[in-house]
What does this fold into?
Amino acid sequence: MTDILMPALSPTMEEGKLAKWHVKEGDSVKSGDVIAEIETDKATMEVEAVDEGVIVRLAVPEGAEGVKVNTVIATLGDGDALRAPDAKKKSIDKESVAKDNKALEKKEAAPPAAKSTEEKGAPAAPKVEVASDPDIPGGTEMMTLTVREVLRDAMAEEMRRDEKVFVMGEEVAEYQGAYKVTQGLLEEFGAKRVVDTPITEHGFAGLGVGAAFGGLRPIVEFMTFNFAMQAIDQIINSAAKTRYMSGGKLTCPIVFRGPNGPAARVAAQHSQDYSSWYAHIPGLIVIAPYSAADAKGLLKAAIRNSNPVIFLENEVLYGKSFEVPKLDDFVLPIGKARVMRQGKDVTLVSHSRGISYCLDAIKQLEEQGIDAELVDLRTLRPIDFDTIIASVKKTNRLVTVEETWPVCGIGSEIAARVQADAFDYLDAPILRVSQKDVPMPYAANLEKLALPSANDVVEAVKAVCYR
Amino acid sequence: MAKGGAKSPAAKPSAAKGKPMPSAGFTPGEDLQAYRDMLLIRRFEEKAGQMYGMGLISGFCHLYIGQEAVITGVMAALKEGDQIITGYRDHGHMLACGMDPKGVMAELTGRADGYSRGKGGSMHMFSLEKNFFGGHGIVGAQVPIGTGLAFANKYLGKDNISVTFFGDGAANQGQVYESFNMAELWTLPVVYVIENNQYAMGTSVARASAQTNLSKRGDSFNIPGEQVDGMDVRAVYAAMQKAADWCRAGKGPYILEMMTYRYRGHSMSDPAKYRAKEEVNKMRQEHDPIEQVRLRLIEGGTKEDDLKKIDQDIRAIVGEAADFAQSSPEPDPAELWTDILSDSAETVEA
It folds into this structure.
C-alpha cells in the first residue's frame, strides 16, 4: 500500500483545493495517469500517479479546500486491499480531513512562512490585536481578501479609471501572471493594455520608461525583483534621475512592481531583498506593504503618482488574507508609516514580511511581560521618521526588523537618524534584526538560520530591555 | 567593409547594398536651409569647444562637428510631433529640433537659464515642446527609451514616429537588441539611426564589431536596414523619408546606418591619437557636409555674399548664445533640493 500525498506545487505552497478526482475507488491506474486536479492560489495543476496499482481509497473528497501539503489524499494498493476492513472505516468525510490537517499542523516543524499570524481563508484574526488604520474611515465595511487579489483589484481599478495605465512584463497576460497577480486582466483589458514581454528585463524596463516619457502610465511587473538587477540601470539612471537632470521638465510616471525578498527554498539568486538598494536612490519612491489593505491603497497611490515608484511585494504574503475596506476608491497616502500596535516598553520598526516575525514575537513578549509597539513603515522612501521618532520618544527603545542584509540596510538608516534626532530619549543601543550577512543557502536548516525569526526579535527586544 | 582598417566611409557610401542611394535633388531653397541649419551646429560647437578651453564649460563635452548632415537631413524629413532621442553627443540634435541656442549654451555653462536649469549639463537636456527626449549619458540606454516612445505613439493612436539615434559604439550594447526584438515583435514606429562615425571613443568599428556593417544588425529580427552616406544631407533626407514612410505605414521599425565622421576627439580631453591626421584631413577636404552644400549653392548661382551674410547671422546667434550663457546666473543654492520628485499635490488627484 502506498499513500498518495497532497503535493507541493510551488516553493511557497502550503495548502490547496482538491478540485477534481479523475479516478474513483477501485480504478486501476498506471504511472503517468492523471488522477486529480489540484488548485493552488496560483494555478490549477494535474496530479499524476507515480506508480501502478488500484485506488484503494480516496481520503479527501472532491472540492475539499485548504488541504495541507503532505496530507494523505489517496491510497494505492493491489485489488485485494479494497476489500480490507480498515479501508472502509476510513471513508471520505470532511471532518476527518479537517482532523488530518490539524494533526499535520501540530506535527509540522513549521517554516517561518507557516508561522505567520494570518492564514489563508481565515479572516484576519491575528493573535496580536492590531490597531485599525486611521486612514480608513471608522465604520467602513471590511471584506477578507488576499494580498494577491487586492494587487490585481488595484491595477484593474486604476486601469478602468485611466486609459493610459497599462501592465507589461513576463507572463502577465496569457499565463495570468507567474504568481497569478495579474489574473483576469487580459480578459478585461485586452492585449493592448496587458502586454506579455519577451524575457528581456533591461529592454522592457527601458521601454517602459520611454512609454512613460511618451505620456503613458506603465506598470512594469518583474517576475521577481531578483531579475530587475538586469534592469537597474534604466530604473536608476533613466527613471529616477531624469526629473532632476531635466530641471523638472520631464517626469517618469511608472510603477515597477513584483515580489521581492526571500520566498522559500529558492537559494541565493532568487532570495534577495532589495529594499535598501532602491531606498538609497533620490528620485524614487519605494513602497513595501505588509497587509492587503496597505497593498491596495498604496498600489493605487503609486499608479497615480507621477514619479517612478518601486513597489516591493512579497511572495510569501501573496496568499495571506486580511481585512480590506470595502470602498470604491481606497487610496492611501505614500510616505506614512502606521502604528500597528501600541506599546510602552520598546518600539519595533519593520516592513513587508518582517511584520510577520514581529507579530509572532510580540505574542511571546507579551507572555514575558514586555509590551512592544509595532510600526509598519509601509513606505521605505521617503521613510516616515516622524512616526518612528515619536514612538521612540515614548518607549525609549528601538529594534528594527527586516529581511534585508544588515550592512547598509533599512535598519542602519533608521538607527543613524534616531540617534541623531532622539539621542537623549534612548535608554539602550538600537539593535537590528535582519537576514544574516550571507547569500541565501538552499538547505532547509541553513535557510532558516539565515532568515530573521521571531526568536531573533524576542532576543533583541530582551537585550534592549536589559532582560 | 573589410575588417582591419578604418576605411573612409563616405567614399563608398552605399557599397553594401550594391546600388547607389537615391540622392534626391534639393532645390536651391532646401540647400540654403540645410546650409544654414548645419552651419548653426558647426559654429555653435566651435564656440562650445572654445569656451571649454576657457574653462567656462566643464565636465564632459562631446562635439558634433563633422556629423551635421545626419541630424539636419533627418529633421527635414519629419513631421510635427515626431520624437527625437539620442546619446551624449547631442548639441546638434537639440539645435536641429529648434531648441534655443541660448538655453543650450547656458546649460553647458551650468547656469540658471539653461534648459535643465543648470542641473543636467551637456548630456542631459530635454524639451517636450520640441519633442526632444534627451540627451542620455549611458551608452545605449536611449534605445529602449526611444522604443518606448514609439510604443506610446502606437498605444495612443498617433501617426508619429520616434527617431532613436545611437552610435557605432552603442550598437554593441545588449539592450539595443532587446529593443530591436520588441520593436519588430510589436511593429513599433521607430527609426533607429546609427551614427557610425567610425570610432567608439578610441576603438574603430573594425576593432569592436564582428559584423562591421551595422545596417545588418537588424537582420535576425527581420528589421530592414541600409547604409547611407551620412555626409550628404540629401542622401540622409531621402533615406529618412523612406524609413519614416515605412514606419507610418505600420510596418514596424527601420534601421539607417549613417556613415559619418567626427572631426574632433570623442570628448574635449581626447587627443585622437588612434587615427591618422591624414584620415581626418581627407574627410574634411573631400566630404565635409557643409562644404558640399556650399559648392552646390555656388554652382547653382548663389552669390558668395549671400552665403557670407548667412555666416554672419549665424555667428551673431552663436555669439549672443555665448554671451547669454556667461551672463546667466548660477542656479540658486536652494535649487539643489528641487526637481527630485514631482510633488504629490501635483500628481495624486483627490
